[in-house]
Specification:
The structure holds 2 protein chains of 2 kinds.
Chain A: E1 11-18, E2 25-31, E3 35-40, E4 48-52, E5 56-63, E6 76-83, E7 88-94, H1 96-109, H2 139-145, E8 153-156, E9 172-175, H3 180-188, E10 197-201, E11 208-211, H4 225-235, E12 241-245, H5 249-255, E13 271-275, H6 281-295, H7 302-312, H8 314-334, E14 338-342, H9 349-361, H10 368-381, H11 386-389, H12 406-420, H13 429-438, H14 452-458, H15 460-463, H16 467-471, H17 474-477, H18 505-508, H19 513-536, H20 560-563
Parallel strand pairs in A: 11-14, 12-13, 12-14
Antiparallel strand pairs in A: 1-2, 1-7, 2-3, 3-4, 5-6, 6-7, 8-9, 10-11
Chain B: E1 8-15, E2 23-30, E3 34-39, E4 46-50, E5 54-59, E6 67-73, E7 78-83, H1 86-99, H2 119-126, H3 131-137, E8 145-148, E9 164-167, H4 172-180, E10 189-194, E11 199-204, H5 216-227, E12 235-239, H6 243-250, E13 265-269, H7 275-290, H8 296-306, H9 308-327, E14 333-336, H10 343-355, H11 362-375, H12 380-383, H13 397-411, H14 420-432, H15 443-448, H16 451-454, H17 458-464, H18 498-501, H19 513-532, H20 543-548, H21 555-564
Parallel strand pairs in B: 11-14, 12-13, 12-14
Antiparallel strand pairs in B: 1-2, 1-7, 2-3, 3-4, 5-6, 6-7, 8-9, 10-11
The chains are: A alpha+beta, B alpha+beta.
């Protein structure tokens, strides 16, 4: 079926658009295969609103005059459009039939399943060419950059045809002494074939963060010699490594009944297991839904608001993600041990914890390029199933399938770190907000599909543009930079005390006046910094390294206003 | 000195709340005004704790390692000590209990605090804030309002200032009659005149109306106030109490204005709770901050249960209502509660901050506090327990005002000249009794105590150090800075004030964007100056920052610095 067949009414005149903080506008509404286009009728400077249909999470329609005369002059309908970036719009459409047609087009076209029908495959802006570089980082690049790895680690292409692990990239970093045959065996012993691979090597002491899925020990305590050897090779002679299991002890025990399990002390004698419970899947998605619902009703009393905020548990999830990341950092940085992180599938909280730990540990991942590279390696190439997880956002009434806001939770945690260390990250909140939007609906191919194998099959690299490349283009980059950036070599330990964690107002209250007030302050920060740079001359624009102390701890928010910018 | 049983205890341990395993060993000294802890380490770090700031000293049961002593301060600092000998601990406890509860004004720190100012400078310091000039600044039209000498020598009302501003049209007899009809003689007088709309904010205590009493003088007074605003046809009477409380007061011969007796008034109840409710609420909030390793839910539940933010919202709502009436509707407002010195002061001063950008500057806030709080008889010594007295008189009224300002700063980051540090410093000094400004309960009492001759004024001290209290985002030509602030009072706008109540979590301050911006600004200015003298651009320009550090004449300042470093 052609996409255009979903469109029965392509154009409607005299539509009224209502959106937050703006007076209602009258204009023409247009539905295309991928967009909803509204433009007011003024000839000069006509104002247009373009919404990706993919961005629409839910529509609600109410039609007046339903039982009257179908084509009566006065009949009209209202469509409420709730977007995945949490914006809510209303369209008043004259003509009941037109209204119903448009609503059904939106419903059909916003829920396309086939990747190659999605907009990134049609997005062809004149300033970009399809043959430019795609992506920023890869396993090989990371290996090349990290000299510490060269001695004991190697890049394996055992998964080059994606047969060992369908959700892994073609290349992974593993201990040099473990050959590909052993990797294949280990993969058979891990859920989804996700055998332990290197995610990060700490620049200070060479300790590593590994990630994997759960071992398939099952009820009768199966073992896998190769898997044990692989992990033994990771710690290589040192006495201890830590396995951070992102499930409670009880959950890990129960997993054995369904064929999963955990690394037992007797088989992995040099590894110490620590359990930290993390919610996953449906529970997280419902948490997001509850939070967004609480934020969208300004009539709540303070008591009711706090109770709804608590009840959503979103901040509790932020709290546990940051706490466990802190635990990983403690093992690596303070105690000098390597760490293996896994939960069950190893595609959600595993990635969340390991990438947050890197952000805390590694100054290179706190630059704009470094952070995007981290996302690319540890989320996109590592096989976080974006398409499944981000099919719907907080407004959808559709029955939940595989949706889960793991990536949004990551962005929230990064925001908390940024808020506590406003000088330590090179990028700004604007970048996090942009990513929160792009991950659900995008012109770019970066977040399409669920893993590298699927992206290869669909020809994503050949047929779409790369978001990260575009974010780094010189004219765009500046809006995503933090004007106050001062690089530091130290680990930045965020405080995980509940009073140090806050609701991410920039995202969840994005479309309220509250967030609007902050814009001016943000501009003021920029103007002070720019003024300074101009006066100081070009040779002084480089950031001077900050004064160092032993460890950075979260700064006391002496002026909270600056931290919300 | 007679209260100090043990002036010195050695080998005392002081614990850090964040890292309970870590502690400092040192010597504890008791002076008549401070308890000083000197570390045994190389640095000989000193921690000074002012006795008049201590709210509660508690001894826990002795354990094998010694006797624990917990000192809680009115500015929410908590110090945990371990004293080796139980006998010493008992002695220290007894001494501190007595020293932290002075019984006579003469014992207060302000009478012994001597910053080495000569007599002339001291007098000049007391003249720093001039309320007469403030009423001129407001632009009161002389044909409508004038200062009356009716309260000369506090004959009419002993808790009011001697100079009162009333409508020019009222006769002395009406003034006296109105005072007689108001609780404690606190008749309606001018608090703020809004030049742009000619509407005014007046304040008083409740009328002695009971079930049927009336006073034609008081009715004439209100009529005159209404008429002093030529354009409006009615005025609001804002009773800041919950209506039920106001009704209950009628049984005691007090109550509220009967709308049938007063022509052209509209009565509005706001519902700010009384001082006892607020005291309990704040205690619950402090307990939330004291929780050991709380979960996110514990924290949010505790925050909700304390009701604190709900009360802050009520105070801010009162201010918003008044500011809107005055600025948008051009209607004058008479504000009262019961006695007119707690909720009335809160509502009037919050409204003034919203209405007049002057009160959002450093000097302006000082003037506002001097006018609405100090001169109009807010009972500082009772509310902030300067002397050992009735615990039921204690209540965080001023804390709530400062917090309302802080909440506004969160919404309008560029609108205030001062920063959070300024508010916290004010809060500390309201409790500390180091300066004479807030001693006593009304102007008459302060005069009788001869405070101006015997103590020093806080304001010039803060003014000299204003660089430290300046918000770098403030520019007096900024759009946020101009005009009337219209804050949102949606529940989600109210935040837990971590800088105030989360102080137990104090840790190494290494990154503050405010300081960074200030440094940037100063560097720019300095560069500018140097460029103009055609000198070469210097490499290091931190001198400006060092200059803003207070030079240890203020004990609190010293203590802060020592703790933070």
């Amino acid at each position: 079926m052609e996409l255009s067949e979903h469109i029965r009414t392509a154009n409607v005149e005299d539509v009224t658009l209502r959106r937050p903080f703006h007076p209602a506008l009258r204009g023409t509404l247009c539905v295309t295969s991928h967009h909803l286009l509204f433009s007011d009728r003024k000839d000069e400077d006509s104002w247009q609103l373009l919404i990706l249909l993919r961005n629409i999470d839910a529509t609600e329609k109410s039609v007046e005059n339903l039982f009257g005369y179908p084509r009566a002059v006065g009949s009209s309908g209202t469509i409420t459009i709730k977007c995945k970036d949490l914006l809510v719009l209303q369209l008043e459409i004259p003509g009941m039939e037109e209204c119903l047609n448009i609503a059904s087009s939106i419903e059909a076209l916003s829920a396309l399943e086939s990747v190659t029908e999605m907009y990134p495959f049609f997005y062809r802006p004149s300033h970009l060419t399809l043959h430019g570089p795609w992506g920023l980082s890869s396993t090989e690049k990371y290996y090349k950059q990290t000299e510490r790895l060269w001695d004991r680690w190697r890049v394996s292409t055992v998964n080059s045809d994606y047969s060992v692990c369908p959700s892994y990239p073609h290349a992974v970093i593993v201990p040099r002494e473990v050959d590909d045959e052993k990797l294949v065996q280990s993969a058979r012993f891990r859920q989804g074939g996700r055998f332990p691979v290197l995610s990060y090597c700490h620049h200070r002491n060479g300790m590593v963060i590994m990630r994997s899925s759960q071992p398939l020990t099952g009820a009768n305590r199966k073992r896998c010699k190769e898997d044990e050897l692989l992990l033994q090779a990771v710690i290589d002679g040192s006495l201890l490594g830590y396995i951070i299991d992102l499930r409670s002890t009880q959950q890990a025990q129960q997993a054995r009944m369904t064929g999963g399990g955990f690394e037992s002390k007797s088989c992995y004698s040099h590894w110490k297991r620590i359990h930290r419970h993390h919610e996953r899947g449906k529970v997280l998605q419902e948490s997001l839904i509850k939070l967004v619902e609480a934020c969208s009703d300004p009539s709540h009393s303070v008591d009711r608001w706090l109770s709804k905020l608590e009840n959503s548990k979103w901040l509790s999830h932020v709290h546990s993600a940051l706490s466990t990341a802190g635990l990983v950092v403690e093992c690596v940085e303070r105690d000098g041990h390597s760490v293996l992180v896994h939960g069950s599938e190893g595609t959600d909280s595993t990635l969340l914890v390991s990438s947050l730990a890197q952000l805390i540990l590694d100054p290179a991942s706190r630059t704009l390029t470094g952070f995007l590279g981290l996302l690319e390696r540890d989320w996109i190439q590592a096989g976080h199933p974006f398409q499944q997880r981000c099919a719907h956002s907080a407004y959808s009434h559709a029955r939940l399938k595989q949706e889960c806001p793991s990536f949004l939770l990551l962005l929230d945690c990064v925001w908390q770190v940024w808020r506590q260390f406003p000088l330590a990250l090179e990028f700004s909140e604007a970048l996090l907000l942009r990513l929160a939007q792009e991950v659900y609906a995008s012109n770019y191919g970066t977040f399409l599909c669920n893993n590298e194998q699927e992206r290869c099959a669909a020809g994503v690299k050949e047929n779409t543009h790369c978001l990260f490349q575009s974010l780094l283009s010189p004219d765009i980059e500046e809006q995503y930079l933090n004007p106050l950036y001062e690089p530091t070599d130290l680990a930045i330990w965020p405080s995980v005390h509940p009073q140090s964690l806050q609701l991410w107002t920039g995202l969840f209250l994005r479309w309220t006046e509250y967030a609007q007030n902050m814009e001016e302050a943000r501009e003021e920060v920029w103007s002070i910094v720019k003024e300074h740079r101009e006066r100081a001359g070009p040779d002084r624009t480089n950031n001077t390294p900050s004064t160092h102390c032993d460890t950075l701890t979260p700064f006391e928010n002496l002026m909270d206003e600056l931290t919300i910018l | 000195m007679e209260h100090i049983r043990t002036p010195k205890v050695e080998n005392v341990r002081m614990f850090d709340k964040l890292t309970p395993r870590k502690c400092m060993v040192g010597t504890l000294y008791l002076s008549s005004t401070h308890t000083i802890f000197v570390e045994n380490s190389e640095a000989r770090k000193e921690t000074w704790i002012l006795h008049s700031l201590m709210s509660n000293v508690e001894r826990l049961p002795t354990n094998p390692s010694g006797s624990p002593l917990i000192i809680r301060c009115k500015n929410f600092h908590v110090y945990r000590l371990l004293i080796p000998q139980e006998k010493d601990c008992v002695d220290v406890l007894a001494s501190l209990t007595r020293l932290s509860h002075p019984e006579r004004y003469g014992e207060l720190f302000c009478f012994s605090f001597n910053p080495n100012l000569d007599k002339e400078l001291r007098e000049k310091a007391w003249a720093f804030i001039d309320l007469k000039a403030e009423f001129i600044r407001m632009g009161i039209p002389r044909n409508l309002w004038h200062a009356t000498a009716a309260n000369h020598e506090h004959r009419l009302c002993d808790t009011y200032p001697s100079e009162l501003y009333v409508p020019k049209s009222v006769s002395p007899a009406v003034i006296v009659g109105s005072a007689k009809f108001r609780s404690r003689g606190r008749l309606p007088v001018l608090s703020y005149y809004h030049r742009d709309s000619s509407a005014s904010i007046c304040r008083s205590s409740q009328p002695l109306s009971g079930f049927s009493a009336r006073s034609s003088d008081d009715e004439q007074m209100l009529q005159a106030i209404m008429k002093s605003n030529p354009v409006s046809e009615f005025m609001y009477v804002v009773d800041t109490r919950p209506k039920l409380n106001a009704v209950a007061n009628r049984a005691a011969g007090k109550g509220y204005e009967n709308e049938d007796h007063y022509t052209n008034i509209k009565l509005q109840f706001i519902g700010i709770e009384n001082i006892h409710v607020m005291r309990n609420s704040q205690q619950k909030l402090i307990d939330v901050g004291d929780l050991v390793a709380p979960t996110m839910s514990d924290f949010l539940w505790g925050l909700e249960n304390s009701g604190w933010l709900k009360h802050i919202k009520a105070v801010l709502d009162a201010g918003v209502f008044i500011a809107k009436a005055v600025a948008e509707d051009g209607v004058s407002v008479l504000v009262h509660c019961s006695d007119g010195w707690d909720r009335t002061a809160q509502a009037c001063s919050v409204a003034s901050v919203l209405l007049d950008s002057y009160y959002r500057t450093i000097k302006g806030l000082m003037v506002l506090i001097e006018k609405d709080w100090v001169s109009f008889g807010h009972k500082f010594s009772h509310r902030y327990a300067h002397l050992d007295g009735d615990p039921k008189e204690v209540s965080p009224v001023m804390d709530q005002f400062l917090e309302c300002v802080w909440q506004l700063m969160q919404q309008f980051p560029c609108a205030f000249e001062f920063n959070e540090r300024f508010l916290i410093q004010l809060h500390t000094h309201i409790y500390s009794c180091q300066y004479g400004n807030f001693i006593g309960n009304c102007q008459k009492e302060r005069r009788d105590l001869k405070l101006q001759e015997r103590t020093h004024s806080l304001w010039p001290h803060l003014w000299e150090n204003r660089a430290e209290y300046t918000n770098p985002l403030y520019r007096n030509d900024h759009s946020q800075t101009q005009g009337v602030l219209k804050p949102l009072t949606t529940a989600y706008c109210f935040k837990f004030w971590k800088g105030m109540y989360g102080r137990a979590e104090k840790s190494v301050t290494s990154q503050s964007p405010a300081d960074c911006l200030n440094a940037v600004r100063e560097e720019s200015q300095q560069l500018e100056e140097e460029l103009s003298t055609h000198q070469e651009v210097p490499r290091e320009t931190d001198a400006g920052q060092e200059n803003c550090r207070a030079e240890g004449e203020d004990f609190r300042g010293e203590e802060e610095d020592q703790e933070v470093v």
